[in-house]
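Lecture notes, part 5. Sequence design as translation. It can be helpful to think of inverse folding as translation between two languages: the language of shapes and the language of residues. The source text, in structure tokens, appears below.
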């Protein structure tokens, strides 16, 4: 049996990846099971991987975590129910640790905090299996922090070769209010017994985190319960929105688990709440300014100079009988160009085309915002579709610099701002072509005119 095949049969995939310097190929969602063990040792030897296997007998990180804790001391944490709420102990089940971490985005800039980390298993799991720049647990009960630190130390002594962490786990014996977590991109809190006052205080701190930061909580925030928000229109807490709900196995219920609510920080969403519809007399710049606050997904493109984009649309000479298609790969830019097409052309039907689902979702958000906040600028009879492939019958195309196929275009269709080769005739500009009628015997058509 070849050495590589033998290693795959007896070692964790991540250890094999690290041993052969192929960690990037096994990374999934910013991590690879066990990848953190030898992260940074791209050229780690096969001997180190064998030493780790021999020392532990483990085939995955769950096994390592079990070996890292002193059983009697660890089990003593559980079963405390007839005590003060701060002393009741429960945690994510071993089988749920990876599923919980999958709710976050990972990478070298990720900063993970576990508020109320207990014995620290989730922090250790994150450091062992995810690419990140920090993994820190905060816990106010000293004996739990001691267990976490003991487990970390034991984990580091399982092998003779020092572990090269991407970010060595940290544990702090502290109240949440004394900890600076402004750099956080991912936060988990087992908040079942957190009082409402604490939840609200944390919420006000969370909205100051970077856009896109995620907070996973076992209960909703007080302002977000019972299916409706109880916030004023100008409250910054509108920036905390639930984007996911997942059941995760817990130590007290490993079968059904408990719902984890995933919030994401999005200050653009908070601005949207305070917006009101524009009058029919609103100008294009005024509409774009409002959409800049209303379109949650879009990039910051709404304040850019749109003169060149409008000029391209104008060159197509779109009339009331035309069907206009717009192509693009940039989410915000295609959304902006589609909105401009609605505002500056008379096309009764517009189609935004992208194979990327996120790009399409961004355009759909922009059109929905246009209907909501500038309804007078999108008449009821005008249709806007967002699709993955261009439909047939299109008479005008804004290619957005992309290569366009002429197969679905009507003869005589006008195409602007494209790349590649289109069988057509030059027309009023360096990047505009008119698709010739089928069978028309013109030398320029046969030569496939290039812009």
């Amino acid at each position: 049996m070849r050495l590589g095949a033998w290693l795959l049969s007896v070692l964790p995939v991540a250890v094999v990846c690290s041993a052969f310097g192929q960690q990037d190929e096994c990374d999934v969602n910013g991590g690879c099971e066990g990848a953190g063990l030898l992260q940074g040792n791209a050229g780690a030897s096969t001997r180190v991987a064998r030493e780790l296997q021999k020392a532990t007998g483990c085939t995955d990180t769950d096994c390592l975590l079990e070996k890292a804790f002193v059983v009697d001391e660890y089990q003593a944490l559980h079963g405390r129910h007839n005590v003060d709420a701060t002393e009741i102990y429960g945690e994510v089940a071993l089988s749920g640790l990876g599923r919980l971490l999958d709710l976050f985005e990972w990478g070298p800039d990720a900063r993970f905090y576990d508020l109320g980390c207990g014995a620290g298993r989730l922090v250790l799991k994150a450091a062992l299996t995810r690419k990140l720049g920090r993994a820190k647990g905060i816990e106010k009960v000293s004996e739990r922090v001691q267990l976490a630190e003991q487990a970390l130390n034991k984990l580091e002594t399982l092998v003779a070769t020092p572990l090269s962490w991407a970010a060595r786990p940290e544990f702090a014996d502290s109240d949440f209010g004394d900890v600076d977590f402004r750099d956080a991109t991912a936060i988990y809190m087992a908040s079942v017994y957190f009082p409402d006052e604490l939840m609200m205080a944390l919420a006000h701190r969370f909205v100051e985190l970077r856009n896109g930061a995620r907070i996973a909580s076992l209960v909703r925030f007080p302002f977000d319960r019972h299916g409706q928000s109880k916030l004023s229109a100008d409250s910054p807490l509108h920036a905390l929105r639930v984007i996911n709900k997942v059941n995760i196995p817990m130590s007290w219920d490993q079968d059904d688990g408990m719902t984890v609510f995933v919030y994401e920080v999005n200050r653009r969403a908070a601005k949207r709440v305070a917006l009101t519809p524009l009058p029919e007399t609103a100008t294009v710049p005024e509409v774009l300014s409002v959409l800049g606050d209303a379109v949650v997904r879009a990039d910051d493109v709404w304040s850019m100079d749109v003169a060149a984009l409008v000029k391209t649309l104008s060159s197509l000479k779109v009339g009331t009988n035309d069907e206009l298609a717009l192509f693009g790969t940039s989410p915000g830019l295609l959304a902006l160009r589609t909105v401009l097409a609605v505002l500056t052309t008379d096309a009764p039907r517009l189609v935004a085309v992208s194979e990327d689902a996120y790009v399409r979702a961004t355009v759909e958000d922009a059109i929905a915002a246009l209907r909501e906040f500038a309804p007078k600028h999108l008449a009821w009879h005008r249709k806007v579709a967002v699709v993955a492939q261009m439909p047939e019958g299109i008479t005008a195309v804004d290619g957005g610099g992309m290569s366009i196929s002429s197969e679905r275009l009507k003869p005589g269709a006008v195409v602007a701002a494209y790349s590649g080769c289109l069988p057509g005739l030059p027309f009023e500009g360096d990047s505009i072509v008119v698709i010739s009628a089928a069978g028309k015997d013109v030398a320029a058509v046969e030569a496939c005119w290039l812009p």
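The translated text above is only one of many valid answers, since several sequences can fold into similar shapes. Residues 357-373 form the longest helix (17 residues).
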